[in-house]
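Q: Give me the 3D complex with fe (ii) ion.
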Amino acid sequence: MIFRQLFDAESSTYTYLLGDEATRHAVLIDPVLEQVERDLKLVAELDLTLTHVFDTHVHADHVTASGVLRERTQATVVGGVGGASCANVHVRHGDEVRVGELVFRVLATPGHTDDSLSYLLGDRVFTGDALLIRGNGRTDFQNGNARQLYDSLTRVLFTLPDSTLVYPGHDYQGRTVSSIAEEKRHNPRVAGKSEAEFIHIMENLNLPKPRKIDIAVPANRACGHTAPAPQGA
Ligand SMILES: [Fe+2]
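A: Here is the predicted complex, encoded as structure tokens.
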């Protein structure tokens, strides 16, 4: 398997490229609009064909490249049921998505947003903003729900094998990968915390509104295409 972890410094977003050695088919998970040229160059250099784009959720902090990548490569855009209506395929918990001979299993991990998915491939799980390294996505907008996220973390992600490698959607402190065992033991929001304690923590973070939310959320519902300006505006 071909695997690359890419980073967008502006939004601290990780994008993942995974390719199947046999068919050379590949997927980008959570590509960022400003990084389209970088990502397509790498796909070409590795002699891959981009057949799929997965978005883990409708992002508030950056604009997805999924729509532009689809136009440039004819890739199939995969998103969650209830997420971006522009996706070609809407998946739900337990579904499988094949990229060449790679078989991804879809895990519904709502709570950061109501459409949040994780994608499991063998011993790696791509968690978007549901589970971050020593943290988790905020739950105070986009139909976020702390109780639901607690369930997603403790009943879905933490039931994966301890050795499963956790590849998050972001990191703000330079960390790149964790494991289920590590997060079960050391994640300060959820390790050893009851549901009530977790909800209390999430309700008292007092985070500023993301800078790009008013642009990013509507654009991402359209796979990264911003709406045309209203007539006469
Ligand atoms: Fe997010």
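A quick observation: Residues 125 and 166 are 5 Å apart (CA to CA).
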